[in-house]
Amino acid sequence: MDIPRGRITAVMGPSGTGKTTLLRLITGQVAAESGSIRVAETDMRTVRRAELYVLRRRMGMLFQNGALLTDLSVFENVAFPLREHTDLPERLIRQLVLTKLQAVGLRGAAELMPAELSGGMSRRVALARAIVMDPEILIYDEPFVGLDPISLGVILRLIRRLNDALGITSIVVSHDVQEISTVADLVYLLSGGKVVAKGTPPELQADPSEIVHQFIGGLADGPVPFHFPAPDYFGELLGRGEGP
Amino acid sequence: MKLARELWESLIGSLVGLGSIVRFLLRLFAEVPRALLRIDLIAQQIYNSGALSLVIIMLSGLFVGMVLGLQGFQLLQRFGSEEALGTAATIGLVKELGPVVTALLFAGRAGTALASELGLMRATDQLSAMEMMAVDPIRRVVVPRFLGGVIAMPLLAAIFSVIGIYGAQLVGVQIMGVDSGSFWSQMRAAVALADINEGIVKSLIFGVACSLIAVYEGYYAIPTAEGVGRATTRTVVTSAVVILFLDYLITAAFL
Question: Which of A65, A85, A126 is closest, CB to CB, to B134?
Fold first, then answer.
């Protein structure tokens, strides 16, 4: 897989196919047992802890649930990376945080605590926190899960706008086919831990392979079976063979 | 044969667990110098573990002291030496009950709070988010909580003992009629600095043990509701057993 610089790359695939694991490999949260991963010229298999932390300062990540620090206010959450990594004066930190919160439309929520936010708001605050250090790479892990249509639209627009305005390399893991097709420049489709298709959203729509057809069309059965492997149904109902 | 194998596996599992917690402790110690630069974070945790435990510690200290006063009076009266109540209660509290009961209460209140807080931070990806922001959660979150507990424990034990002595005096002098002058003067004459030192050493070691168990269990909790619950329970159970075991060892060492 190659992730082009400055573009939005979507990684899609059925649940349990290894999308989040791929993100963890890219970000060095887990080590690869085989193969190689290079992020910004750094080999993630041999990277040392100190180098990894330097690399991560160039990355931002939006977690599925936002992962805001619950004992800090919205303002302090966004200011957190600045306070940890810089010696900027308080006035400048305030300006930077308010700028990022304004970008995600939540400047007015700066004094709220995470428990007071809706799911969509939490993710927007987490996005503001992810971009506060002006990262080169921004990683989104299932950013649309559980969002109402308005929040979903807001997050979609933010992904596109941040990418265009800041020239960030974006990697979006999602299985929301329609949504991601509207913003992604390149899509990788994974299944069973392998890349089964790659291309722009229109190219993927036109792909004739069965797995792509099943995934894009949202079909219940196909190469990815509806039924989890199990003994013969009637045999089990009639008490023949092993079963619970 | 099966039983022997299970016992062997259990022993190996325990040793692996012990090795893991010792390695974790060494990692915490390695981060202590840099964590000390953030005094504000440590002060916050002293408040969380110490100040917020004050009510339960003071109430328990008072009641334990009162019981000690009552029982001590009954016992000493048989030998006609009720005046020694101050000495008996103070030595009992400073050397033994103060550090041990404080540590047990600390494990129940602050230890469970630490373990569940860290476990929930793990379950809600807050620790992973810190890692992704290039912030080491051990240095930023775990070490200040560990140090907060270690510093708070001797302070809480001292408060427990002082309140306990007051409780013993309340019952012995105010209710049972022991002479106030004898109570205090005998106490001052008989209690040595070594007795107080023993209590301080005990509470410091208990502070390290309780805080370590709590942050270890929380940090490595399985990130589910059940996992966090189990980590919290293990914190209390392990802490209680370790405190009583260490208490015996330290007491024997001081004899």
Answer: A85
Provide the shortest C-alpha distance from residue B23 to chain A (in Å). 17
d(CA A16, CA A168): 28
Task: Give the pairing of strands A59-62 and A38-39.
Answer: unpaired
Could you tell me which residues are beta bridge partners of residue A173?
Answer: A11, A141
Structural domains for chain A: 8-207 (3.40.50.300)
Q: What is the pLDDT along chain A (244 residues), one digit of tens a residue?
A: 888 888 899 998 877 778 888 888 888 888 888 888 888 888 888 888 888 888 888 888 888 888 999 999 999 999 999 999 999 999 999 999 999 999 888 899 999 999 999 888 898 899 899 989 888 899 998 888 777 888 788 888 888 888 888 888 999 988 777 778 888 889 888 887 788 888 888 887 777 777 777 777 677 777 777 777 788 888 888 876 555 5
Q: Do B124 and A69 touch (CB under 8 A)?
A: no
Interface of B with A in 109-128 (CB under 8 A): 120-121, 124-126, 128
A57 touches chain B (CB under 8 A): yes
Burial class (CB in 10 A: 0-12, 13-18, 19+), B157: buried
Provide the pairing of β-strand A194-199 with A42-43: unpaired
Chain B residue numbers touching A53 (CB-CB < 8 A):
134, 136
- Predicted ipTM? 0.80
The residues spanned by each domain of chain B are: 38-254
**3-state DSSP assignment of residue A178:** helix
End-to-end Cα distance, chain B: 43
pTM of the model: 0.84
Residues in chain A with CB shorter than 8 Å from the CB of B128 are: 29, 63, 67
